[in-house]
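User: I'm putting together a teaching handout on how multi-component assemblies are represented. Below are the sequence lines for each component of a complex, exactly as they appear in our records. Could you produce the 3D structure of the whole assembly as structure tokens, so the students can see both representations side by side? Please keep the chain order the same as the input.
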Amino acid sequence: MIKATIAELPKYVDKEVKVGAWIANKRSSGKIAFLQLRDGSGFVQGVIVKSDVAEEVFQTAKSITQESSVYVTGTVQKDERSPFGYELLVTNIELIHTSTDYPITPKEHGTEFLMDNRHLWLRSKRQHAVMKVRNEIIRATYEFFNENGFVKVDPPILTGSAPEGTTELFATKYFEEDAYLSQSGQLYMEAAAMALGKVFSFGPTFRAEKSKTRRHLIEFWMIEPEMAFVEFDENLEVQEQYVSYVVQSVLKNCQLELNTLGRDVSKLEKITAPFPRISYDDAITFLHEKGFDDIEWGDDFGSPHETAIAESFDKPVFITHYPTKIKPFYMQPDPEREDVVLCADLIAPEGYGEIIGGSERIHDMDLLNKRVEEHQLDPETYKWYLELREYGSVPHSGFGLGLERTVAWITGVEHVRETIPFPRLLNRLYP
Ligand code: 4AD
Ligand code: MG
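Assistant: Of course. Below is the structure of the complete assembly, with chains in the same order as your input.
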């Protein structure tokens, strides 16, 4: 007997296989029963015809409860009507464990209830599809950077310094010393780029932000590439190449999942490099023309502003050259204009907001020292970072892509809480 996963069934058409599975759903009549089987690799319908199986097998199919676990034996058949394209004509069911009163039924549930049951909600078809897309984005990320000469480097999670401002830090104790959970691996990635040229990281980052929006998590995962001898424009080119590579990989490898999620793929098919660029100055003018009187030059954009700008494009758009005073200390000023920096945020289409923040970094020691002082940072804490500018300092650039916002955009899921297995939100540390 062939033991197969659901994803492998297309290899075994007309063959008899044994599959370990859970019962996601069922319906039956007097003569036929349909079991919606899931095993993690996929979903398939099992068909049990009363007249073709032993009476006890049909009775098991009729009485089995949602989320009970089974070994099912059956013959794989092509089925044009199912999205998967195959079904299993069941000949035998071995019950492994009977599940009782599974809380998440096929009917509608409220968000808080589903979040309380996140450990079970993950089993649903929609959540399964989102996690598969997330996995594909991670896989394509590693592929893209490895194929383009980047080395994966892992920055620390426990740190003594704060790259993205000191207000949103999770503080903890490192024995006697004060320590913080990493907000970004960037400063370490800059050191790594001076050793390995082109590097990228992928890891968890933490922000004690009191924001309760559909775009904010307290713990989120970031991909942070950093490149020596790479200047502002080249940095944007890497970003548009990378983001389009990821979108095209998902389109190619996650058709079933995008279909399950009801994603309009025609919108994703348009995501190819190059992406449009608009300066902060022009964005302000554009917003004023659109009737946003609440924003002035020097203010940071809120999500309504980002959404209004993104709506004019069907690709992600770079907003470049933000005012120096609203950006972190390490960003390289525009050589022609001191009041703006060589940075860009990449804004996703369809209202998903900023998915990338990046910039060229200051490589001049004196200027960086000045900035550390202006931002009232402790030079002792940043000593090692400043030292990078002492030994063969070079122009370098990098960026950080927020994985969950990217997953939300590509899957078309409204809120980032569904894009990470166990979201940490303002009011939620469980499950
Ligand atoms: O724009 P941010 O703060 O940039 C940095 O941390 C840089 N040091 C990255 C770098 O240049 N290496 O964050 C980068 C991205 C944002 O564009 C957004 O996608 C995501 O991280 N992000 C969040 N995602 C979910 N929840 C939050 N609270 C987020 N904060 C930032
Ligand atoms: Mg940002």
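A couple of points students might notice: DSSP finds 13 helices and 19 strands in the chain. The two ends are 39 Å apart (CA to CA).
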